[in-house]
Design the sequence.
């Protein structure tokens, strides 16, 4: 008796049921295979029809706010009505001490890097770094407060370009090598609690540099918190920025194609809003909470 027959006989003696796998005829097998291949093909076609997440749309019509910047984008995402009041109604805003001080410190930093002399006390927590930056400036590697523009396809342009779609103004751009650059943003406020917002701002600047200088592969961004002496460095490769681009593009498209600017009143939005009833607001918003 063969081993197979012995097993069958033992199973029969034990009362266990043996299940014989049904063998499909060859023609039926071939039919199943063809159906499976067809299903796979159909799925492939379906997937191809879906939107490619790496592609960006460049042919859309812009709306009432046709040009974006990082600050307008953040305002829009916090409360579209704030952008309506600022950009469409053109309601004036109050001067705030904090904003004026921030502008003064930016001017101070830019002026010192260009001219040198005695470093102002307000910048003294970054003495060594400002000295390094001035050396880079003297070597011709630094751009400061340049008006960088982009069109819908992110091709670089001037702010007066008829196809201008986005604006960026970098405090400092240092060309470190053929393939790497450093972006520095001076902050007079605090780092704590602003990490996400500032990282997001850094990405928007890096995306401008990505398109303006296609030979760059490495992008470092550092925030200098001048009052506190703190820093927040970030870095990206070209490949990483390429992955982040479509989402950023979509956010900017939402702002620049918006038709409705609905208010989003809530305590945290309205307290700090330029049009709310808080310390910094003009009280122009009828929806302020
Ligand atoms: S006060 Fe509130 S609702 Fe009004 S614009 Fe500002 S954030 Fe929006």
Sequence:
């Amino acid at each position: 008796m063969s081993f197979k027959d012995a097993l069958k006989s033992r199973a029969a003696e034990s009362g266990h049921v043996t299940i014989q796998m049904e063998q499909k005829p060859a023609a039926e097998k071939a039919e199943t295979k063809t159906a499976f291949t067809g299903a796979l093909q159909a799925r492939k076609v379906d997937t191809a029809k879906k939107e490619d997440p790496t592609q960006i749309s460049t042919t859309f019509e812009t709306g009432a706010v046709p040009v974006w910047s990082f600050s307008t984008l953040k305002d829009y995402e916090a409360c579209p009505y704030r952008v309506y009041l600022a950009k469409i109604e053109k309601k004036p805003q109050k001067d705030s001490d904090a904003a004026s001080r921030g502008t003064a410190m930016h001017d101070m930093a830019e002026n010192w890097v260009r001219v040198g002399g005695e470093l102002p006390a307000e910048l003294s927590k970054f003495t060594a770094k400002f000295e390094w930056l001035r050396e880079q400036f003297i070597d011709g590697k630094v751009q400061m407060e340049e008006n960088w523009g982009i069109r819908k396809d992110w091709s670089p342009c001037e702010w007066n370009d008829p196809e201008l779609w986005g604006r960026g103004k970098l405090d400092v751009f240092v060309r470190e090598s053929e393939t790497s650059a450093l972006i520095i943003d001076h902050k007079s406020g605090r780092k704590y609690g602003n990490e996400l917002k500032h990282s997001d701002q850094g990405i928007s600047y890096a995306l401008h540099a990505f398109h303006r200088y296609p030979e760059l592969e490495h992008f470092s961004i550092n925030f200098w918190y001048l009052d506190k002496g703190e820093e927040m460095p970030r870095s990206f490769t070209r490949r990483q920025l390429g992955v982040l681009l479509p989402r950023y593009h979509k956010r900017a498209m939402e702002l620049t194609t918006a038709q409705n600017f609905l208010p989003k009143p809530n305590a945290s939005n309205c307290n700090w809003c330029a049009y709310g009833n808080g310390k910094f607001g003009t009280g122009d918003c009828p929806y302020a909470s």
